[in-house]
Amino acid sequence: MRILIAFLWLLHWLPLPILGRLGNAVGWLMYYAIPKRRKIARINLRLCMPELTEAQRVDIAKRHFMAYSRSILERSLIWWASFERIRRLIHIEPAVPEAQMKDGPTILFCPHFVCLDVGGVAARVMPLSTMYAPQKNKAFDDLLRYGRERYGPVRLFTREAGIKPIIRALREGLPYYMLPDMDFGEKDAAFVPFFGVPAATLTAMGRLAGATGAKVIPVIATFLPDYNGYRVQFYPAWEDYPGDDIIAATRRMNAFIEDRVREHPAEYFWTHKRFKTRPPGEPSFYD
Protein backbone atom coordinates (compact mmCIF):
# COMPACT_ATOMS: atom_id res chain seq x y z
CA MET A 1 0.00 0.00 0.00
CA ARG A 2 2.84 2.43 0.77
CA ILE A 3 4.25 1.83 -2.70
CA LEU A 4 0.84 2.63 -4.22
CA ILE A 5 0.58 5.80 -2.13
CA ALA A 6 4.05 6.85 -3.27
CA PHE A 7 2.99 6.28 -6.89
CA LEU A 8 -0.10 8.43 -6.39
CA TRP A 9 2.05 11.15 -4.85
CA LEU A 10 4.24 11.19 -7.95
CA LEU A 11 1.16 11.52 -10.17
CA HIS A 12 0.12 14.83 -8.64
CA TRP A 13 3.05 16.54 -10.38
CA LEU A 14 1.65 15.71 -13.83
CA PRO A 15 -0.32 18.30 -15.83
CA LEU A 16 -4.03 17.53 -15.65
CA PRO A 17 -4.39 16.70 -19.39
CA ILE A 18 -1.71 14.01 -19.04
CA LEU A 19 -3.06 12.72 -15.72
CA GLY A 20 -6.61 12.62 -17.11
CA ARG A 21 -5.59 10.71 -20.23
CA LEU A 22 -3.64 8.26 -18.09
CA GLY A 23 -6.74 7.73 -15.97
CA ASN A 24 -8.84 7.12 -19.07
CA ALA A 25 -6.37 4.52 -20.33
CA VAL A 26 -6.34 2.70 -16.98
CA GLY A 27 -10.15 2.80 -16.87
CA TRP A 28 -10.42 1.34 -20.37
CA LEU A 29 -8.27 -1.58 -19.18
CA MET A 30 -10.30 -1.92 -15.98
CA TYR A 31 -13.49 -2.34 -17.98
CA TYR A 32 -12.10 -5.52 -19.52
CA ALA A 33 -10.05 -6.67 -16.52
CA ILE A 34 -12.83 -6.56 -13.87
CA PRO A 35 -15.74 -8.58 -15.28
CA LYS A 36 -17.66 -8.58 -11.99
CA ARG A 37 -17.90 -4.79 -11.86
CA ARG A 38 -18.49 -4.60 -15.61
CA LYS A 39 -21.48 -6.91 -15.19
CA ILE A 40 -22.91 -4.81 -12.34
CA ALA A 41 -22.59 -1.60 -14.35
CA ARG A 42 -24.28 -3.08 -17.40
CA ILE A 43 -27.13 -4.55 -15.33
CA ASN A 44 -27.70 -1.18 -13.63
CA LEU A 45 -27.72 0.63 -16.96
CA ARG A 46 -30.09 -1.92 -18.48
CA LEU A 47 -32.51 -1.40 -15.56
CA CYS A 48 -32.24 2.40 -15.50
CA MET A 49 -32.01 3.17 -19.20
CA PRO A 50 -34.03 0.54 -21.09
CA GLU A 51 -34.80 3.10 -23.80
CA LEU A 52 -31.15 2.97 -24.96
CA THR A 53 -29.69 0.32 -27.22
CA GLU A 54 -27.29 -2.21 -25.72
CA ALA A 55 -24.45 -0.60 -27.67
CA GLN A 56 -25.28 2.80 -26.14
CA ARG A 57 -25.32 1.33 -22.64
CA VAL A 58 -22.00 -0.42 -23.23
CA ASP A 59 -20.53 2.89 -24.34
CA ILE A 60 -21.72 4.58 -21.14
CA ALA A 61 -20.31 1.71 -19.05
CA LYS A 62 -16.90 2.00 -20.71
CA ARG A 63 -16.85 5.75 -20.25
CA HIS A 64 -17.87 5.27 -16.62
CA PHE A 65 -14.88 3.04 -15.95
CA MET A 66 -12.66 5.68 -17.54
CA ALA A 67 -14.24 8.48 -15.47
CA TYR A 68 -13.98 6.44 -12.28
CA SER A 69 -10.32 5.65 -12.91
CA ARG A 70 -9.66 9.32 -13.64
CA SER A 71 -11.26 10.30 -10.35
CA ILE A 72 -8.99 7.91 -8.45
CA LEU A 73 -5.75 9.09 -10.07
CA GLU A 74 -6.78 12.74 -9.93
CA ARG A 75 -7.48 12.40 -6.23
CA SER A 76 -3.72 12.78 -5.93
CA LEU A 77 -4.29 16.45 -6.75
CA ILE A 78 -6.80 16.83 -3.92
CA TRP A 79 -4.39 15.20 -1.50
CA TRP A 80 -1.12 16.89 -2.46
CA ALA A 81 -1.46 19.67 -5.04
CA SER A 82 -1.10 23.25 -3.85
CA PHE A 83 -4.26 25.06 -2.81
CA GLU A 84 -3.64 27.60 -5.58
CA ARG A 85 -3.62 24.87 -8.23
CA ILE A 86 -6.76 23.26 -6.86
CA ARG A 87 -8.60 26.58 -6.84
CA ARG A 88 -7.68 27.14 -10.49
CA LEU A 89 -9.07 23.73 -11.46
CA ILE A 90 -12.42 23.98 -9.65
CA HIS A 91 -15.09 26.10 -11.35
CA ILE A 92 -17.98 26.81 -8.99
CA GLU A 93 -21.45 27.64 -10.30
CA PRO A 94 -22.93 30.01 -9.30
CA ALA A 95 -21.01 30.34 -6.00
CA VAL A 96 -20.59 28.54 -2.70
CA PRO A 97 -23.71 29.50 -0.67
CA GLU A 98 -21.61 30.45 2.33
CA ALA A 99 -24.16 32.80 3.85
CA GLN A 100 -26.86 30.12 3.74
CA MET A 101 -24.50 27.54 5.18
CA LYS A 102 -23.80 29.83 8.13
CA ASP A 103 -27.46 30.71 8.58
CA GLY A 104 -28.81 27.67 10.38
CA PRO A 105 -28.52 23.91 9.91
CA THR A 106 -27.53 22.86 6.38
CA ILE A 107 -27.35 19.53 4.57
CA LEU A 108 -25.12 19.56 1.48
CA PHE A 109 -26.64 16.76 -0.58
CA CYS A 110 -24.02 15.21 -2.87
CA PRO A 111 -25.03 12.11 -4.91
CA HIS A 112 -22.43 9.54 -5.90
CA PHE A 113 -20.86 11.05 -8.98
CA VAL A 114 -17.20 10.15 -9.43
CA CYS A 115 -15.99 13.70 -8.64
CA LEU A 116 -17.82 13.92 -5.31
CA ASP A 117 -14.58 14.60 -3.39
CA VAL A 118 -14.07 17.72 -5.51
CA GLY A 119 -17.48 18.94 -4.37
CA GLY A 120 -16.35 18.44 -0.79
CA VAL A 121 -13.26 20.58 -1.41
CA ALA A 122 -15.34 23.35 -3.00
CA ALA A 123 -17.68 23.41 0.01
CA ARG A 124 -14.87 23.90 2.52
CA VAL A 125 -15.45 27.57 3.25
CA MET A 126 -16.14 26.61 6.87
CA PRO A 127 -15.89 23.51 9.07
CA LEU A 128 -18.07 20.61 7.89
CA SER A 129 -19.13 17.17 9.03
CA THR A 130 -19.55 14.02 6.96
CA MET A 131 -19.75 10.24 7.08
CA TYR A 132 -16.53 8.24 7.02
CA ALA A 133 -15.83 4.52 6.62
CA PRO A 134 -12.59 3.56 8.44
CA GLN A 135 -10.20 1.57 6.26
CA LYS A 136 -8.53 -1.66 7.37
CA ASN A 137 -5.13 -0.57 6.04
CA LYS A 138 -3.75 2.06 8.43
CA ALA A 139 -1.61 3.83 5.83
CA PHE A 140 -4.58 4.22 3.49
CA ASP A 141 -6.86 5.24 6.35
CA ASP A 142 -4.38 7.91 7.41
CA LEU A 143 -4.21 9.17 3.82
CA LEU A 144 -7.99 9.44 3.47
CA ARG A 145 -8.25 11.30 6.76
CA TYR A 146 -5.43 13.62 5.74
CA GLY A 147 -7.15 14.32 2.41
CA ARG A 148 -10.35 15.31 4.20
CA GLU A 149 -8.66 17.37 6.91
CA ARG A 150 -6.11 19.36 4.89
CA TYR A 151 -8.77 21.86 3.78
CA GLY A 152 -9.88 22.70 7.30
CA PRO A 153 -11.64 21.19 10.31
CA VAL A 154 -14.03 18.34 9.57
CA ARG A 155 -15.98 16.13 11.95
CA LEU A 156 -16.14 12.52 10.75
CA PHE A 157 -18.89 10.08 11.72
CA THR A 158 -19.03 6.33 11.26
CA ARG A 159 -22.27 4.70 10.17
CA GLU A 160 -22.25 2.65 13.37
CA ALA A 161 -22.54 5.83 15.44
CA GLY A 162 -26.07 6.37 14.16
CA ILE A 163 -27.93 9.59 13.50
CA LYS A 164 -27.66 11.34 16.89
CA PRO A 165 -24.10 12.75 16.43
CA ILE A 166 -25.15 14.15 13.04
CA ILE A 167 -28.19 15.88 14.54
CA ARG A 168 -25.99 17.32 17.27
CA ALA A 169 -23.46 18.63 14.70
CA LEU A 170 -26.22 20.21 12.59
CA ARG A 171 -27.64 21.98 15.62
CA GLU A 172 -24.13 23.22 16.44
CA GLY A 173 -23.95 24.84 13.00
CA LEU A 174 -21.76 22.33 11.16
CA PRO A 175 -23.06 21.71 7.61
CA TYR A 176 -23.39 18.00 6.92
CA TYR A 177 -21.97 16.76 3.59
CA MET A 178 -24.31 13.85 2.84
CA LEU A 179 -24.18 11.03 0.29
CA PRO A 180 -27.44 9.10 0.85
CA ASP A 181 -27.92 7.33 -2.50
CA MET A 182 -26.46 3.87 -1.93
CA ASP A 183 -28.08 0.56 -0.99
CA PHE A 184 -27.34 -0.15 2.68
CA GLY A 185 -30.14 -2.66 3.12
CA GLU A 186 -33.67 -2.29 4.47
CA LYS A 187 -32.74 -0.67 7.79
CA ASP A 188 -33.82 2.99 7.86
CA ALA A 189 -34.77 2.70 4.18
CA ALA A 190 -37.86 2.49 2.01
CA PHE A 191 -38.40 1.00 -1.43
CA VAL A 192 -38.67 4.08 -3.60
CA PRO A 193 -38.45 4.13 -7.41
CA PHE A 194 -35.07 4.94 -8.93
CA PHE A 195 -35.46 5.17 -12.70
CA GLY A 196 -38.74 3.33 -12.20
CA VAL A 197 -37.19 0.39 -10.34
CA PRO A 198 -37.94 -0.05 -6.60
CA ALA A 199 -34.68 0.64 -4.75
CA ALA A 200 -33.92 0.45 -1.05
CA THR A 201 -33.30 4.14 -0.38
CA LEU A 202 -32.23 5.74 2.88
CA THR A 203 -34.86 8.08 4.31
CA ALA A 204 -32.24 9.73 6.51
CA MET A 205 -31.99 13.02 4.62
CA GLY A 206 -35.67 13.79 5.04
CA ARG A 207 -35.63 12.67 8.66
CA LEU A 208 -32.58 14.80 9.44
CA ALA A 209 -34.08 17.85 7.75
CA GLY A 210 -37.35 17.33 9.61
CA ALA A 211 -35.68 16.85 12.99
CA THR A 212 -33.33 19.84 12.76
CA GLY A 213 -35.04 22.23 10.34
CA ALA A 214 -31.99 21.94 8.09
CA LYS A 215 -32.11 23.33 4.57
CA VAL A 216 -31.01 20.94 1.80
CA ILE A 217 -28.61 22.31 -0.82
CA PRO A 218 -27.70 19.85 -3.60
CA VAL A 219 -24.09 19.78 -4.85
CA ILE A 220 -23.03 18.09 -8.10
CA ALA A 221 -19.37 17.80 -9.13
CA THR A 222 -18.45 16.73 -12.68
CA PHE A 223 -15.53 16.88 -15.10
CA LEU A 224 -15.12 19.89 -17.35
CA PRO A 225 -14.48 18.98 -21.00
CA ASP A 226 -10.99 18.80 -22.49
CA TYR A 227 -9.26 18.15 -19.14
CA ASN A 228 -9.85 21.72 -17.99
CA GLY A 229 -10.73 20.79 -14.41
CA TYR A 230 -14.01 20.34 -12.59
CA ARG A 231 -17.42 21.98 -12.39
CA VAL A 232 -19.10 22.12 -8.98
CA GLN A 233 -22.69 23.26 -9.13
CA PHE A 234 -24.58 24.35 -6.02
CA TYR A 235 -28.33 24.22 -6.58
CA PRO A 236 -30.90 26.38 -4.79
CA ALA A 237 -31.99 25.14 -1.39
CA TRP A 238 -35.10 22.98 -1.68
CA GLU A 239 -38.34 24.59 -0.62
CA ASP A 240 -40.99 22.79 1.42
CA TYR A 241 -38.67 19.90 2.23
CA PRO A 242 -39.22 17.36 3.66
CA GLY A 243 -42.91 18.12 4.10
CA ASP A 244 -45.28 15.75 5.86
CA ASP A 245 -44.57 12.62 3.77
CA ILE A 246 -41.11 11.12 4.25
CA ILE A 247 -41.61 8.71 1.35
CA ALA A 248 -42.50 11.56 -0.99
CA ALA A 249 -39.41 13.43 0.25
CA THR A 250 -37.25 10.40 -0.51
CA ARG A 251 -38.81 10.07 -3.96
CA ARG A 252 -38.00 13.74 -4.57
CA MET A 253 -34.36 13.01 -3.75
CA ASN A 254 -34.23 10.11 -6.21
CA ALA A 255 -35.96 12.14 -8.93
CA PHE A 256 -33.35 14.90 -8.56
CA ILE A 257 -30.55 12.34 -8.92
CA GLU A 258 -32.20 10.84 -12.01
CA ASP A 259 -32.25 14.25 -13.70
CA ARG A 260 -28.57 14.86 -12.96
CA VAL A 261 -27.61 11.34 -14.10
CA ARG A 262 -29.28 11.97 -17.46
CA GLU A 263 -27.08 15.06 -17.80
CA HIS A 264 -23.85 13.18 -16.99
CA PRO A 265 -24.64 9.47 -17.44
CA ALA A 266 -21.04 8.21 -17.52
CA GLU A 267 -20.09 9.88 -14.24
CA TYR A 268 -22.63 8.26 -11.92
CA PHE A 269 -21.43 5.36 -9.78
CA TRP A 270 -22.82 2.46 -11.83
CA THR A 271 -20.54 -0.25 -10.38
CA HIS A 272 -22.42 -0.14 -7.05
CA LYS A 273 -25.19 -2.73 -6.60
CA ARG A 274 -27.87 -0.05 -6.31
CA PHE A 275 -30.67 -2.63 -6.51
CA LYS A 276 -29.06 -5.30 -4.30
CA THR A 277 -31.83 -5.26 -1.68
CA ARG A 278 -35.12 -6.43 -3.16
CA PRO A 279 -38.67 -6.31 -1.86
CA PRO A 280 -39.78 -9.60 -0.28
CA GLY A 281 -40.14 -12.36 -2.85
CA GLU A 282 -38.27 -10.58 -5.65
CA PRO A 283 -35.16 -12.32 -7.05
CA SER A 284 -31.77 -10.63 -7.24
CA PHE A 285 -30.86 -8.77 -10.41
CA TYR A 286 -27.19 -9.59 -9.96
CA ASP A 287 -27.09 -13.34 -9.34
Provide structural commentary.
With 287 residues, this protein is α/β, with parallel strands linked by helices. The chain has one domain. The chain has helices at residues 2-11, 16-33, 35-48, 54-80, 83-89, 98-102, 116-122, 138-149, 164-171, 204-212, 246-263; strands at residues 90-93, 106-109, 128-131, 154-157, 176-178, 189-194, 197-202, 215-223, 230-234. Strands 1-9-8-2-5-3-4 form a 7-stranded mixed beta sheet, with helices on both faces. A two-stranded antiparallel sheet has the order 6-7. The chain is globular, with a radius of gyration of 19 Å.
Question: What's the helix and strand layout?
Answer:
Elements: H1 2-11, H2 16-33, H3 35-48, H4 54-80, H5 83-89, E1 90-93, H6 98-102, E2 106-109, H7 116-122, E3 128-131, H8 138-149, E4 154-157, H9 164-171, E5 176-178, E6 189-194, E7 197-202, H10 204-212, E8 215-223, E9 230-234, H11 246-263
Parallel strand pairs: 1-9, 2-5, 2-8, 3-4, 3-5
Antiparallel strand pairs: 6-7, 8-9
Helix pairs in contact: 1-4, 2-4, 3-4
Please name the defining characteristics of this protein.
287 residues, alpha/beta, 11 helices, seven-stranded mixed beta sheet, two-stranded antiparallel sheet, 47% helix, single chain, globular
